[in-house]
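Posting here for the record, re: glycine.
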Amino acid sequence: MNVLILGSGGRENALAWKIAQSPMCDKLFIAPGNAGMLSLGENLPIKVTDFDSIKKAIIENDIKFVVVGPEDPLVNGIYDFIKGDKEISHVGVFGPSREGARLEGSKEYAKEFMMRHGIPTAAYRSFTEENIDEADAFIDSLKAPYVLKADGLAAGKGVLIIPDAATAKASLREMILDAKFGQASAKVVIEEFLSGIELSVFAITDGKDYKLLPTAKDYKRIGEGDTGLNTGGMGAVSPVPFADEAFMKKIEDTIVRPTVEGLEKDGIVYTGFVFFGLINVDGTPKVIEYNVRMGDPETEAVIPRVESDLLEALWAASQGRLGEVDFHIDSRAAVTVVLVSGGYPEAYEKGKVIKGLDAVDENSIVFHSGTALNENGEIVTAGGRVLCVTSYDEDFREALKKSYGNIEKISYEGKYCRRDIGQDLMRMME
Ligand code: AMP
Ligand code: GLY
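Prediction output follows.
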């Protein structure tokens, strides 16, 4: 079958790399893709939210299956768009319906879903202009620090953790009354602060059955020792060493299965990835957030560990037959280290020529996050996150050495990466 992947980052490069290996894949298209996907398929210059052009591309290229990478098209209803159009409704879609995507698109919706289905999460209340007068008393009833979340999508920036109550009260007003995050913060969820170590768990579901993907931990801050500004993610390690069998059983029993059963009970059409952002609170896993897509850069460490045919599993899920699929994970660890542009996550320059990609040895796989070809056909930087260098080993510490070794061979002006990916986990294991 011909397959179309929507997206253009390292996540989509990793998905494309895996899907292109499937005997079920005839021709692979990526919209819009990046320079890393050119050897795997054909890039189509289409924005992921331009549904009319996506429809045209589906018809022109006889595409049978669409795999959606990022959240934007999902929250905007790409599933419903394709399924509701007679000319393309036969096309399979891997990604939830607009209703399902609200688990990521609205923090309040996700909280209500968890409450309804008894899924452990932080205590919360939500506020708008209407009940803002009640917020001060709620803030006073919580212990510091205070967690304020814009209800809607805010490009990963909508969560504030505030040390004192007075600032929390003022920030709440800025969010709601001064539209600090635009329309996304017209409603704000205030929640109990949970303390513990975070991990990400991923599943594939068809709304009835699920297959767990490997766990991962990502590194969000730009600076070593988790300092400085938040980024899209600077590296990932899979599996998370502290997520042992007993802890994973708790996660499946109290979170993953109740979530999938909840989707079914609520009649929510959901064929896609579920990304559980979790926190380990003294041995009890709780949900910090749901995403309705894979994580980036977690995908670049998680998907290389899938031994089975990923396309077969995603396709079966889209046909409601996920339960029939055998799904195996490689027991080796995988890590990925992200190379970014100088200045990121603030202003940075693009168009820097990348050298040394050919010198990377067979110990690592390079996925492209933000790259393009320039007029001379050279690969150049085209985003904040530029490349992800993934390696495997029985021991994630050895895998990290392989990635850092190959990173030395790659050069471009302003190249930066965190040198301490995985070090917190190494300390925990000592
Ligand atoms: P979110 O966008 O919901 O993932 O939140 C972004 C980050 O804020 C999370 O990765 C956590 O580090 C932190 N965070 C969110 N909610 C809480 C909470 N209730 N307690 C502690 N930290 C939180
Ligand atoms: N790495 C976190 C995310 O993709 O949201």
